[in-house]
Amino acid sequence: MQHFLQISDLSRQQVEALIERALFFKQTGQFPSYQNRAVANLFYENSTRTRVSFELAAKNMQISVINLDLQTSSEQKGEVIEDTIKTIAAMGISSVVIRHKQDGLPQLLAERCLNDSLHIINAGDGQHAHPSQAMLDMMTIVASKPKLDQLKIAVVGDVRHSRVVHSLQALCALMGIGELVMVAPELWQPDVISFGRVTTSLKEGLEDADVVMCLRVQRERLLETEQLDLEHYRAHYAITPKTLSYARSDALLMHPGPMNRGVEIDSEVADGAQSVILKQVQHGVFMRMAILELFC
Ligand code: NCD
């Protein structure tokens, strides 16, 4: 594998090997050292947890990290970024972690910056894909509920704009998840789904679910015609102690973060016994170590 762009580029064996490696890092605390390696973080979109997670993952393995200061260049287009990548590659950086608002940009850059020793890692592109998030989510699910073919996963919220869900659909299909249900008001339902089904009913969607993944209301991505009254949304779709009880009593509660507490999720459940939200964050570092290691 030369790049880490989207889940559909991976085989089930590769996914299993990455999860196994990440769990090994978590369980043993034994981290390999790749002192002669360097990775660049190119984040053209706001991010705290994903950027820090990739940075920590690299540092845990003695990989040097270069964070490019891109604050003033968030509108940069593909051609300029291509030059940036070629420039840093010429300095000896072999892995580039990129987040950008344009769907498909990491793939485009991978095609344009042809160089066998350069690896592009997608840290979220527009509304298209967020493969490392899907991988850390799957790791979190596998760690607690390993019988994947018997699981029902319910994803709730702004499914339409969520790159997390697009990657999760592909990963659930690949891993043979029993059932994936996406719960969303009609305006926030996706036009195309690759795996699973969609419902508008929170109660029906959550019934017997083993995993409930709550999504952020992505205000910055909503078009004029996609606006919903947030009070109305809350009344029908928020994850609260009452609505979480529609799922199995041992269901895991997940959220990719950042959370809008009091909008799509209540603090009582976000900080409650079923929540694995901080475990997702913890697993993110180990999973990104396994991903970075592919290219060391
Ligand atoms: C997600 C993202 O950026 O796509 N968050 C993340 O990576 N931690 C989800 C979101 O922004 O809601």
Low-confidence stretches: none
Q: Strand portion, in percent?
A: 5-15%
Question: How confident is the prediction overall: mean pLDDT?
Answer: 94
Helix fraction bin: 25-40%
Record field, number of beta strands: 9
**From the structure provided, what is the oligomeric state, counting identical versus distinct chains?**
single chain
Structural class label: alpha/beta
**Principal-axis shape:** globular
Number of helices: 11
Radius of gyration: 19 Å
For the largest sheet, list the strands in their spatial order.
Answer: 7-6-5-8-9
Bound molecules: N-carbamoyl-L-aspartate
Order of helices and strands: HEHEHEHEHEHEEHEHHEHH
The major sheet is characterized as: 5 strands, parallel
User: Separation of termini?
Assistant: 12 Å
Break the fold down into its secondary structure elements and pairings.
Elements (H helix, E strand, L loop, with lengths): L11 H17 L9 E6 L5 H12 L3 E4 L10 H13 L4 E6 L4 H8 L6 E7 L5 H14 L7 E5 L6 H13 L3 E5 L13 E3 L2 H5 L4 E4 L15 H8 L3 H4 L7 E3 L12 H4 L6 H17 L3
Parallel strand pairs: 1-2, 1-3, 3-4, 5-6, 5-8, 6-7, 8-9
Helix pairs in contact: 1-5, 1-11, 2-11, 3-4, 5-6, 5-11
The protein binds N-carbamoyl-L-aspartate.
How would you describe the overall organization of this protein?
By secondary structure, the protein is α/β, with parallel strands linked by helices. 39% of the residues lie in helices and 15% in strands. The chain contains eleven helices and nine strands. Strands 7-6-5-8-9 form a five-stranded parallel β-sheet. A four-stranded parallel β-sheet has the order 2-1-3-4, with helices on both faces. Strand 3, helix 4 and strand 4 form a beta-alpha-beta unit. The chain is globular. The mean pLDDT is 94. The protein binds N-carbamoyl-L-aspartate. The site of N-carbamoyl-L-aspartate has 11 residues, from helix 2 and helix 6.
